[in-house]
Amino acid sequence: AGSKLREVFDKINNLLSGKPVQTEGQTVSVTQHPQGLEFVYYKLAEKFVRHGEGEVSFHHDSAFPIAVVLSGIWELHPRVGDIFLAHLHKKCPYSVPFYPARKEGTSLEEYQRMLGYEVHDSKVEEQDHFLKRMSGMIRLYAAIIQLRWPYGNKQGAHPHGLSYGWRWLAQMLNLEPLADVTAMLLLDFLEVCGNALVKQYGIQFWKTMFFIQKSYIPRIEAVTSSGQMGCLSRLKNFVQKCLQEKEIPLPKGILTPSFWRT
Question: How far apart are CA 127 and CA 85, in angstroms?
Fold first, then answer.
């Protein structure tokens, strides 16, 4: 409910503003320790990224309530946004977007960590689990760049708005595609913020969609084996349908004005 989200937002904002906050039966304040505020910035930003790789990866709709709270906090407390991006880029280099190259002397285990895989006791997480986590983080990022906290001061610009999404898409299409990962991330990104991007960039966005269909999808196909076609087929169908119907559907779970009255 919208009212519940406001409670969450106010609690986080009060904590970061140095006010005492009740939690788990005790009162806490960042002023209780000289590094209290920095510590809370760090842990809060880390927590938001965890929501992306956990909750959002399983429940796509949850990207929007989480993103709108983060967007509002970012506006009032820019340090949270900076640290959030640092955590996000480390956990999901594709959010930069960047495909790390393996340097000489880097062990396979270390390189897999650089690519975003979780490695425990020399065991690498399964590909499906890895893709799900990356998907959740990109969906959260795509939701953040288009959402504003509705009760904030609308005079200023969005702290990390759609221009960053436009840049991400352009940079992504300048990279050589990777099997599995590229198709999935492009689809996630376009599903979540394609509608917002087309409203902002119009004809330029449609040119990009046409480029994806004619030039980029064939390049993804060239590096994709027959067993990895699932996500690529979904991306193909999505782009084709959008171009045919000349519209990008609103993402599922987007917060409507009526949501804020709940």
Answer: 24
Closest by CA position to 206, among listed 163, 167, 245:
245
111 to each of 104, 114, 119, 165, how far by Cα in Å?
10, 5, 10, 27
pLDDT tens-digit map of 143-163? 999 999 998 777 778 899 999
- DSSP class per residue in 133-189: HHHHHHHHHHHHTT---TTS-TTSPPTT-HHHHHHHHHHHHTSPP-TTHHHHHHHHH
Confidence of residue 58 (pLDDT cuts 50, 70, 90): very high
Query: Looking at residue 23, what is its pLDDT?
Result: 86
Give the separation between CA 257 and CA 262, rounded to whole angstroms. 10
- Give the contacts of 188 (CB within 8 A, at least 6 positions apart): 135, 138, 139, 142
Identify which of 59, 142, 152 has the alpha carbon closest to the alpha carbon of residue 94. 142
Q: List, in order, residues 6 or more apart from 152 with CB less than 8 Å away.
A: 72, 75, 76
Between helix 36-51 and helix 2-16 the angle, nearest 10°, is 150
Compute the distance between CA of residue 223 and CA of residue 151 in angstroms, rounded to an integer. 46
